[in-house]
């Protein structure tokens, strides 16, 4: 029995597994068996994905050999080749594209299959950085809006207290946040539960009655997707007109709340209070106004406003689903402002909102495997890679490019490592498939994965990578956590699969960079090196690798007895500890955003803006249903697709309210076609009252499997999602979709 960190990928958590091995094969997996369950160092109990990982590990469809494409791109006709031929070809393609178009024509796209140091995308990044660089990206598919919008208010993304502090809260608003299904740090749901046992009232605000609403909340408030900023504005209206705001805190710590505290150069402009009261636009943001937009009763909005503003301290926790939307920047800023005007910032049991990266602790940050520096300084927003394929040469700052005035080249070589993004996880699958199928655009597609994913089917070369059980790794918490988890190599890779590190080392050799790339280390050698770095840089208690391995404890942890509170210093003395914003204060009105001069889409104070696809636009005539693609317990995005027992436990369904299903003649369990202008999918219906009328849900991540008619048989929500990006963050808006649904024609 070996204790190890779960292969976990980008699953939202980091847990401990106990793995039993017999005759070189994994026979059983369970989880943390430490006897204590003390909130300062709780067990890291695995979810069903970690517990069922054996089925993925031993799956008959694991990639076995390197393969090259023999048909048209996307046709998925492949022939086995030797590793020598495959690696020669990768090296010569990197050389050719580099010489013909420059290093910026090579792109390693966003891909989150492994965060365990030497496995996943990281060795490829290290290699390309040594090989002259490649086109980089910034932000993520997870957090584009929230990571860009939070600093416009606070100057930083580190706005979260350590979770042990949640036990001090009296009110918790789980706003579009679903930690029971969408893991957001192992144990987040446990801490909410403890807080509730201590008397906190918990409210879930989500178009779906999630498992979190069921298991953790006192109340579920269904809200129309894309309208959260309207409800938040109406809450502010109630707080302002009923005198529930924290005037003292606003005066000493905030900027731009009303006309008395406008930043220099914006005197006389519309303040937050002006917007809320409708002083300039003539529309007071009353609960009645918001009810028409959000479908939340005005009385409920007013009641939640009063509760959050008076049963203090309180947490307004913002999930990320509502920022993966058209104007995803707005609800983020609106939530931060509610935290600020109620004075919930910088106090125990409070919460500043925003992305809320943990303020202190955390055994270590994950990327200690050295990637080196990228000689190519240009970066694109992660979501805009298809743009860089189509018109990279003309892209500049107006298209979100950083570090250069113009990219000067299109992307010509895509090397997807631990990524199912090129097809499955990016928006508008049919469009991506058309772009990739055109061999005059991207000339070379290399995919490195454990399975023949929809992305791999579009590869010119498929390289079989091993799983985390087959190589060395090290992980720490996903957003939160104080533990460092050792991931020793437990079994050998099947057939000819190799570690991502070994694959990259082989390419490095062919580019004359082997010594520079490996520095004489193998995977285990790098993990030993990384641990020594931690020991040198503030964590001397981490055991050296040999001892760590011999102990078979699997983890090293730091108990949290005295949880840190974000902005505590600023709260105490704002003059001595100013925020890293231009004004040093909480910027309710952002002069930086004001100066962009695009008030309709990037207002200086947070506003509700109607989405570009919404029930209120003309598009609703043909496509009257809003569709969301939540993160499901059964998968890590598209990873773990094909594990039969997970599919059995959580069958893939279109979740639809009977009030929408019945007029359409859709019965429970019926096969349904869901479509819009971008494409169509087939998926079985689950009729349920646990989703609000007018909204349907299709959990994201199933593998795109088009039939001869182009209709996807496996119900991938990204067939329906749009490639349009958000105005300020250049983020993905994959939850903003309008669709129609009808019973599928009998075949
Ligand atoms: N089980 C599981 N857990 C995961 C992952 C996984 O794949 N599976 N992935 C991990 C990763 S990488 C990430 S980035 C996070 C993502 O975490 P999130 O982005 O927070 O997850 P989602 O499920 O997309 O959205 C959360 C909730 O928002 C709701 N929602 C959608 N639109 C709106 C809206 O406009 N308003 C409101 N109020 N609610 C809305 C959805 O119904 C859903 O219940 O999850 C992490 N955790
Ligand atoms: N519609 C919609 N689309 C979304 C989202 C949404 O909410 N809605 N969420 C977005 C978010 S938040 C994210 S983070 C992205 C995630 O998108 P991706 O980063 O593409 O994540 P996965 O789909 O899990 O694909 C990871 C791939 O890595 C492979 N893999 C696993 N381990 C290893 C390894 O060690 N080595 C190698 N080489 N391969 C490995 C897996 O087999 C899998 O194919 O999806 C985004 N797409
Ligand atoms: S939450 Fe993540 S790390 Fe934990 S068991 Fe599940 S998949 Fe593994
Ligand atoms: Mo994500």
Structural descriptors:
single chain; 747 residues; alpha/beta; Rossmann fold; Dimethylsulfoxide Reductase, domain 2; Barwin-like endoglucanases; 3 domains; six-stranded mixed beta sheet; 15% strand; binds ligand MGD; binds molybdenum atom
Description:
With 747 residues, the protein is of the alpha/beta class. The protein folds into three domains: 67-136 and 379-557, 3-Layer(aba) Sandwich (Rossmann fold); 161-359 and 565-592, Dimethylsulfoxide Reductase, domain 2, CATH 3.40.228.10; 618-721, Barwin-like endoglucanases. A six-stranded mixed beta sheet has the order 5-4-16-15-14-6, covered by helices on one side. A six-stranded mixed barrel has the order 21-25-22-24-23-26. α3 (83-101) crosses α17, α4 runs parallel beside α17 and α11 crosses α12. The two termini are 50 Å apart. The mean pLDDT is 96. Bound molecules: ligand MGD (2 copies), iron/sulfur cluster and molybdenum atom. One ligand MGD binds at residues 10-12, 142, 175-176, 178, 181-184, 205-208, 210, 223, 225-226, 228, 319-322, 324-325, 628, 630-633, 635-637, 735.
